[in-house]
UniProtKB/TrEMBL annotation:
InterPro entries: Bact_response_regulator (IPR050595), CheY-like_superfamily (IPR011006), Sig_transdc_resp-reg_receiver (IPR001789). This is Response regulator receiver protein. Pfam families: Response_reg. One of its GO terms (biological process) is phosphorelay signal transduction system. Coiled coil: none annotated. Keywords: Chemotaxis, Flagellar rotation, Phosphoprotein. Residues 2-120 form the Response regulatory domain. Gene3D superfamilies: 3.40.50.2300. The modification 4-aspartylphosphate is found at residue 53. Its cofactor is Mg(2+). It comes from Sulfurimonas gotlandica (strain DSM 19862 / JCM 16533 / GD1).
Amino acid sequence: MKLLVVDDSSTMRRIIKNTLARLGYKDILEGADGLEGWAQMDSNPDIEMLITDWNMPEMNGLELVKKVRADARFKDTPIIMVTTEGGKAEVITALKAGVNNYIVKPFTPQVLKEKLGAVMGISE
């Protein structure tokens, strides 16, 4: 399964990628902002999951989600938003834009595992 991790923090990308690797995911692409994330999505239409930060330069995560959802190739691709924005209004905005699940930073590897399972229909 090919996953894309988009976050302007190289440390956060590394944490997410390491957690995904421990969970058995090996094919992981990354982007440092929404523009890089979109370039990865556009050139890799076989990406099966997008994990994106909200607050990033150039193109933020919400703009990326809207762009991904507007492309027929990705209308069913699961998207998890990872952000410090944990308010109810932000969560509702993200869900309306097409996010499948939401993780508030900081989070544990177990939370990431649970959210991945939830959007992919995998139970423990």
